[in-house]
Amino acid sequence: MEGPWVEKYRPRTLDEIVGQGHIISRLKRYVEQKSMPNLMFTGPAGVGKTTAALALAKEILGENWRQNFLELNASDARGIDTVRTNIKNFCRLKPIGAPFRIIFLDEVDNMTRDAQHALRREMEMYTKTAAFILSCNYSSRIIEPLQSRCAIFRFLPLKGHQIKERLEYIAEKEELDYEPTALDIIAYLSEGDLRKAINILQAAASLQEKITEDTIYEVVSRARPKDVRRMIKTALKGDFMDARNLLREIMILQGVSGEDMVDQIYQEVSRLAMEGVLEAETYIKFIDSIGEYDFRIREGANPRIQLEALLATFLSE
Ligand SMILES: Nc1ncnc2c1ncn2[C@@H]1O[C@H](COP(=O)(O)OP(=O)(O)O)[C@@H](O)[C@H]1O
Ligand SMILES: [Mg+2]
Question: Which residues are recorded as binding ATP (predicted)?
């Protein structure tokens, strides 16, 4: 069994990291100076926060980085006390063969305010021997005293072309056979999250010899937008039975969940409105019923029945 590509292709150096140029150049300056303040990495998932922390630690601490680097997850199920004990044990010892030690604390926004205050005290206690890198999705959930003790780095979602280039690089290394548009679709579906993109690519590669657009939709259990559009248009024409059959095909054959289906219907209806195929007034009515059926499905009603009922509301227009 082959390991996950997200790990296999995790950049080992700062230079190899895709995008985030504004951040990487500042981090490289710390490497040149062989010193760094406490850092806070914020931003969405899968954009390089952990990767940057690891690469920085390796480059700034040198060959003994392993002994001088501690990675902890703040939302550790065993509780913040375990996290603090780990930090204490790690910081009590002098750095070995490196100027200082680095503690990387992931998901700090999941810590309670009390725990964050305790962490702040820890940071103060070990300023001489250790630097902290805190990572979170939202800096607004971090207490002010912690924020003010860190240089803040805001990681951005990766751009479509950056994701595509990385996927092309991996595809070449893995000698994959693929339709170029398949990678565009992965980039689109992964919404700036490169971890997600690489996982989709690996899943698709394990499914079929040649990666096509269809493989991708199958892997992510999303319907092809053109199928959803055809279903909606069929309903608009008043052909309920055909629209219903299309719905069943998409849901059963492609394994699309009820929630995703409503979401995709919403997206296609919105596109039809933007293209002027639907009048604003009709669009507004549709949004209203989509909202209603979305709610029912999320509350646990049978998704197939609800989606058929939703299609029925399109007929009357
Ligand atoms: N900016 C990036 N450049 C290259 N690879 C990346 C980047 N961001 C994410 N990845 C890929 O996704 C995986 C997860 O990234 P990670 O840095 O752990 O994300 P997070 O921001 O959630 O900490 C990495 O192992 C790597 O394969
Ligand atoms: Mg991470």
Answer: 43-50
